[in-house]
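Q: Start with the shorter request: fold the first protein.
A: Done. Sequence, then structure:
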Amino acid sequence: MTEWCENRLEITGKSVCIDVAQDWISGVNTPHYRHAVQQSIRMFLAGTAGILKPVKTLSYPPYPFLIPKGLGAANAQNNAFEQWLSLLQNDAVIDIEAVRLIERLYQQTGLNGVKWENIPEVSRQIIGPILTRQYADWFGVLTLIDSIDAGACWEKLSVMPERSQPCDMIQIMPTRLASELNGDGNLLKGIESLSSLNARVFDIAWPSGHGLKWERGDIGYIEVLFDSPWTPPCANVIAQVSAVFDCEVKHSYCEPINEIQGFDCYAYGKHVTSGNLLTENVDSINQIEGDLVTNGFPINVSGKPPLVNQASSATA
């Protein structure tokens, strides 16, 4: 059973910076890294099915079936696949540069215009079981099913999401290509699972804001409430939030079952101070921007209106 940790971010900065932060908080930004992941899944499937082949002898030990026997013709499509394969071999960080490169390589492969019905039957027989195996990881479905519509899944991979998750932390600290393809089903031998990567980088398995609410107090201030599974996001990601949005961030958190609580303050990428939120230490808590502790979690009593805006999760 998931124990949810309550988090509060109090973000202060120039109004233009808070405007940009608000877009990230509410999930209206385009998740370009998700586009790169979906494009990479298509290139991965095309490689396993022999639709694309490298033009020189290569291997990929985590999944040898990615490179069937035989070399491909030295054309633009196979050259692009070979370059993408190099990114996968290096477990590339999907930063802005990698997103642009993967987009260019994907377009060069011509896969964007390939419909399921135009894929040879022998190739579809290879792609279908992989889609079934990775369905939960690649399409964000929590329940396992025995059969899927492989054609619909192939087409869905070409539909790029326009909105991100609220407080999508992967937009702050990028993910890695091989782990994204691997998911949590051990598809790629010896490659870190996605949950393990997220826990290592963010301290949480699902790096976004769950049950998120926010309120813009004034032009230079925004307050955010969200839940995270078991623990709060790590210090590095909150520090990076303050750097990316050129602002000051106070992060308060409380998970009462396991007695995890405290607050940390950051300014422009640097840690400023930390403390606890224990009820027996109310005097020191009251010195921190008029906070009180109610049911183990700090409630702001500075006269700002209650949080009323809610961001619903976007489909990844």
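Q: Next, the second protein, separately.
A: Sequence, then structure:
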Amino acid sequence: MLSTDKKEGKRAFRVYPNWDAVKSKQAERTQKWELNYFYQINSLTDYKKYLNCIMKNNALHSTTYTQVI
């Protein structure tokens, strides 16, 4: 998932959304940090704004998103 042509990188990582009951201090710290980067998606979500944000980040970080549902 996170690698280059010259170096293999991470192939997976853990994600701790707000509904996940973490079981360690490390997981708790990780969850606290990650929650700043989650999008709340519900019936009031402005999908156009959400997609524009993803596309903006895509251009900034050269990451390819093939599909957003």
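Q: Describe the second briefly.
A: Residues 1-38 form one domain. Helices lie at 25-34, 47-61.
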